[in-house]
Amino acid sequence: METVNKLSFKEKANHAFGISPEDAVLSKSYLFVSFVALLVGGVLGLIQGLNRAGLFELPSWLNYYQVLTAHGILLILVFTAFFTIGYFYAVLSHTLGGLLPKVRKMAWIGFGLKIFGFVLAVIPIIMNEASVMFTFYPPLAAHPVFYFGLVFIVVGVWMCAFGAFIQVANWRKKNKGEHVPILSYFATGVFVLLFFGSVPVAIEVFTIIPWALGWVDTINVMVSRTLFWAFGHTLVNIWYLTAVSAWYVVVPKVIGGRRFSDTLTRLVIIMLVVLNIPGGFHHQIIDPGITESVKFLHVFMSLAIGFPSLMTAYAMFSVFEKTAKKKGGRGIFGWFKKLPWGDVRFLAPMIAMIAFIPGGAGGIVQSTNQLNQVAHNTMWVVGHFHLTLGTTAVLTFFGISYWLVPYLSKRVLTPAINKLGVIQTMFWTAGMIFMAGAMHWVGLLGSPRRTSYTTYSDNATALSWDPYLFFLAIGGTLLMIGIIIQVYAVMHLMFFAPKGKTEFPIAQVEDNATKTPYWTERWGVIIVIMLLVIAMGYVIPLVEMIVNAPPGSPPYSPW
Ligand code: HEM
Ligand SMILES: [Cu+2]
């Protein structure tokens, strides 16, 4: 049960006066960086989209792969990571009685390390010495400074993860026998994944550095790719868990309802944490040198994640229906009209959830061995993650921003900005239908991903892609307008909107809810099980790749 009655003095003060100025500045800084990255990343995305459609030729000093690397890194690493950390630190502050000074300091050190690392990584990208794309695995080799930057980014993330662990552990010590408030429970799950998921990529980067410096001649490409995707796949579940936290806890409050079973919510979090990491090989289905049985295991684990997703879908629609029926909605579908479609804090995450229906289905498609051969490295995949990440996760983040930013800046969401948010959501939805739709389709027709505009000497097949790529560019243009509106709204809410009190929306459980079993608090056990499951997925294939290593690869920098 929620600990509504037994709040400490500090927690009560927090609820009465809102977030402390120190904690607010921290989260605002994270969100500010996040949305600036979105703006720059979006411009680069539009450049790519127009180039792919043959509408825009890049100037000679700018290379397509340089743009693609920056687009991927800005949006995957900077935008989402800074958003997630800013959001969850606000959660920790709000639900656990304010950040401990030590923890706040760690988050600031993490902020500095990440920014410093990012600047280091960007310099070689701008100088066209690191067009290795966000995946950066060998045999492509960037300037060593690029990898130094990545090290700082990873250490910065660890600072934030450990800060969160200290904050939660401190609260638990003071509140023995209580359940950690649900949003902080989500935060715990996310930071556990962030920490354990970034260990493999840290190991990868440490093996790449001597190779990029020329101290060793060759590197084991299979091991590097495997370590990268153990991280890359985890990142996906971090976005998902962040979005899901708002679906379970915030959206029900926004629509005036109660949240779904506390036990089920915590179970979904545990399942995502435990089942997530051994799924990385679904990104390597066509890689040679990995036995079929291991690939099958990873695909099975990937599909196992579908199970908590279906539980979530059920829970959400149950909440919607119950709430709308209480408001007088009738019939099988009549209740649908009772939902607050004009409220961006509901509309954006709702469309995000709806987008996950085709997004998740596409994911299941490309997880199968045979269909992966068709979709792999085509534009289909790019369509898939603009739908899942670019819509499901990102639209939820946008929806969160309309209450989180004014909560932090002690301002209010005005009807005008709400309306702008609704318009923004429509631009995003239409833009993604065009862009992600065209990407999926043209991918099935064979158009490769990560390839600048070419007609392959007017090859007939390649020419047949043109109309779809044109739709891609139209979608990209709509998205760019959406990004401008979104960034404007965030900056307005952060600095200019009228002063006032904005609530941090957290729904209560149903009155007759059953008590959540206490074992859900045993993170030690959960982490041990998680490590066992990771070992099951990775020990044998990694040992095999190292013992029976193929000839290593020298560095390649083909730009
Ligand atoms: C204005 C909005 C956007 C446009 C026009 C756009 C356009 C594109 C295009 C055309 C590509 C494919 C390039 C290729 O494979 O040749 C691409 C790749 C990508 N996009 Fe976007 N995008 C946008 C927003 C986003 C957002 C919001 C995210 C994530 C939060 C995102 C993440 C990515 C990633 C990770 C890649 C793959 C990079 C790679 O293959 O290395 N994009 N984008
Ligand atoms: Cu994955």
Notes on the structure:
- By secondary structure, the chain is an all-alpha fold.
- 71% of the residues lie in helices and 0% in strands.
- The longest helix has 35 residues, at 292-326.
- The model is unreliable at 1-5 (pLDDT under 50).
- Protoporphyrin IX containing FE binds next to helix 2, helix 3, helix 12 and helix 15.
Number of strands: 0
Helix content: over 70%
What is the distance, rounded to the nearest whole angstrom, between the alpha carbons of the first and last residues? 58 Å
What coarse outline follows from CA principal-axis ratios? globular
Question: Residue ranges: pLDDT <50 for 5 or more in a row?
Answer: 1-5
Biggest β-sheet description: none
As a percent range, the share of strand residues is under 5%
Small-molecule binders = protoporphyrin IX containing FE, copper (II) ion
The radius of gyration over CA amounts to 23 Å
The arrangement of helices and strands along the chain is HHHHHHHHHHHHHHHH
- Please state the structural category: mainly alpha
